[in-house]
Design brief:
GO molecular function, one term: transmembrane transporter activity
Family: Belongs to the sodium:solute symporter (SSF) (TC 2.A.21) family.
Main location: membrane
Subcellular location: Membrane
Strand content: under 5%
Protein name: Solute:Na+ symporter, SSS family
Number of strands: 0
Number of domains: 1
Helix content: over 70%
Radius of gyration: 21 Å
CATH class: Mainly Alpha
Structural class: mainly alpha
Length: 461
């Protein structure tokens, strides 16, 4: 299907709103600290906008509809896990993170376990975030190729340019302020799509009649351990995600940071629910289509043109913002924890701002190149692996740094950060397919850190 003039009018209206938000956000940047932590002036809306603007991307929308097309409600675990992660972030992690005053995850780990541990965390967690950007590129390519004559290469280049423009002039303020606007438009658009899917189908009963319940209406259709592994992967990915830590730190108060996390908790699962019904609707009415096109084709086919154009533009900005937010998180860690530590300790604020933006460009260009070599792969699959990898590296050391300061030796942190990814990788070949490798990848490092805690207690006796 092709877009008509009315579609472009709707898209232009949305993009104009986003552009005005981006221009305003760019004016908030006075220093590299404003760029990476918002100058600690953000309200709860900006905090929530930053979190939602990154978590609710192509994976949460296009990717959820894609998986729901084949698996139904088991596709909800990604956004449900994000909501649970935001709840835990606000309840347990916001206070120690905010009070630390540190900007990046490696800085938090360095303060407790030293520079070597911080370097390991920066490199390995950045790799996890890099994989998440690939899922956004896959979503963007699917959206653009579904609506235009561009091929995958051209679509990838367009997504790259949009991601750079989205964040490079706004940093956290770009992802936060535009994130608020985007969240409002996204929830209106995708939420309406979900409602329309139910209405056009003839009600909820129509889905239950047309689709097998065991496959499409069972949250645990992949098995308890497999689905729980997916939830654990997402939860630890949220807690250890650099951009979410930055959002908490950017708040003007601890109360504000918690409110932002809890707003995100309440809203994120809803977007997944809407995507599920769209995906299942397209399964019923277009069973032969490529599942990755379920959401964009539904919007283009069943919604009024101006509204559809606005929603499609919002989807594009959503996945662009999510990928750009991840790139911002990587740039903050690599710039602050590698470049400024090992390359140029005396770098000026102006120089660091340039380096941070340069890193964003390099990360996005590499992501585009890798995506081209993996066209057709599952969008949510990349997101689950990304969050799981970040969690296996950083979750246990971060918990020890925040909740057991001075109680675990550095060698245990090194061992935990190396063991986590290795256990996750090895278990893919050694565990039964119904058990998610993340369970071993997370439990192993936790046991190592607990062993370090017990050893310290033993020596203290």
């Amino acid at each position: 299907m092709t877009m008509e003039l009315s579609h472009y009018i709707g898209a232009a209206i949305v993009l104009a709103i986003m552009t005005l938000g981006g221009i305003y956000s760019g004016r908030q940047i006075k220093s590299s600290r404003d760029f990476t932590s918002g100058g600690r002036r953000a309200g709860s809306g900006i905090v929530a906008g930053t979190i939602i603007g990154t978590l609710v991307g192509g994976a949460s929308t296009i990717g959820t509809a894609q998986l729901a097309f084949t698996d139904g409600f088991s596709a909800w675990w990604f956004t449900l896990g994000n909501g649970i992660g935001c709840l835990i972030l606000g309840l347990f992690y916001a206070k120690p993170l905010y009070q630390s005053g540190l900007v990046t995850l490696p800085q938090l780990i360095s303060a407790e376990f030293g520079r070597k541990a911080a370097t390991m965390a920066a490199v390995l967690t950045s790799l996890g975030s890099f994989l998440s950007i690939i899922s956004q590129f896959l979503s963007g390519i699917a959206l653009i190729t579904a609506l235009s004559s561009l091929g995958p290469m051209g679509a990838s280049a367009l997504v790259l340019m949009l991601m750079m423009a989205y964040v490079i002039f706004g940093g956290v303020w770009g992802t936060g302020i535009v994130g608020v606007l985007k969240a409002l438009l996204m929830y209106a658009g995708v939420g309406l799509s979900g409602i329309m899917a139910i209405r056009v189908a003839g009600g909820l009963e129509a889905f239950q009649t047309a689709l097998p319940a065991a496959q499409y209406f069972n949250l645990l259709s992949h098995g308890l351990t497999k689905n729980m592994g997916s939830v654990v992967s997402v939860v630890v990915g949220v807690v250890t995600g650099q951009v979410y830590i930055q959002a908490i730190i950017a708040a003007k108060s601890l109360k504000t940071s918690r409110q932002g996390a809890w707003i995100s908790m309440a809203l994120i699962p809803l977007i997944g629910l809407a995507g599920i019904y769209v995906g299942m609707f397209m399964r019923i009415h277009a069973p032969q289509m490529d599942p990755v096109y379920a959401l964009p084709v539904f919007v283009l086919t069943y919604l009024p043109p101006v509204l559809a154009g606005g929603i499609l533009a919002t989807l594009l900005v959503t996945l662009v913002g999510s990928g750009a937010g991840m790139a911002l998180g990587i740039s903050a860690m690599v710039g602050q924890d590698l470049y400024k530590v090992y390359v140029s300790p005396e770098a000026s604020d102006r120089s660091m701002l340039f380096v941070t933006r340069l890193i964003i460009f390099v990360v996005l260009a590499l992501s585009a190149a890798v995506t081209i070599g993996n066209l057709g792969s599952g969008i949510l699959g990349w997101s689950f692996v990304s969050m799981g990898l970040r969690g296996t590296v950083a979750f246990a050391p971060l918990c020890a740094a925040l909740f057991m300061p001075g109680k675990v030796g550095r060698s245990y942190a090194y061992a935990a950060m190396i063991a986590g990814p290795l256990l996750m990788l090895l278990s893919r070949w050694s565990l039964p397919p119904n058990i998610d490798p993340i369970l071993l990848g997370i439990s192993g490092p936790i046991l190592i850190m607990l062993a370090g805690r017990l050893r310290r207690n033993h020596h203290a006796l």
